Sequence to fold (83 residues):
Amino acid sequence: MGTIEELKAISSTVVRRLRRQKLDNGKPFLIWSNKLPKNQSYLEYPDQSIKIVTVAPNLKSFTIVEELTTGQAQVIRHELNLF
Fold:
């Protein structure tokens, strides 16, 4: 069994791969972050825009809270190592 660091690296790689697949298929990718309030997440779209959303408890719908500027979206991608 791997160390915690190895497991973190593997999971990070898997998440990046899944993100890329979803975006390449024209679908948005939901990004949970502890930098946002508990009920909010980032929703990244294939056009590279990112919106902050509130996800419904059933996880089947969301409400847009804010659309980030291009610069803000780049900062978020950098902070979350999504490049």
The radius of gyration is 14 Å.
